[in-house]
Fold:
Amino acid sequence: MYAVIKTGGKQYRVSPGQRLKIEKLEQEVDSVVQFDEVLLTSDGDKLEIGTPFLKGISVSAKLLQQGRGKKIEIIKFKRRKHHRKQMGHRQSFSEVEITAIGGIKTTTKTTTAKTTTPKKTVDKTTKEKTATKIKATTKVTPKKVVKKKTVTLKKTDTTTKKPKE
Structure:
């Protein structure tokens, strides 16, 4: 039995008992993780394909550890300019062990008793009165039109005429 799940923007083919490293999950170690985005399941001769996901089927896993992968070195180099830049990156991951595939999702719903409160009825006439009061108190003032003044500059003669000889 196997399934294809989607997590962290990637797709994984998983089977019960399998351990795999996936993108980091924000959960506690030794907690149970439910993957609801199941794309495909197979049980030997029976194959179910979702469009895009299968409804009612989930994959449960146990979160074993949180860690960081090997360091990847990035080197940037430009020739003839004495320009070299070296950086490193370590990707965070979560290691999970698949415990079960399939079945209807078990969701815990908390039911709370709803208390009914009587709705407040407001007359339409009181709404209209308050609306007319608001309109009466606000006066519409027209905006003043400001004319732009044109400034004329005197041209000064910067060239001097030479007398003819």
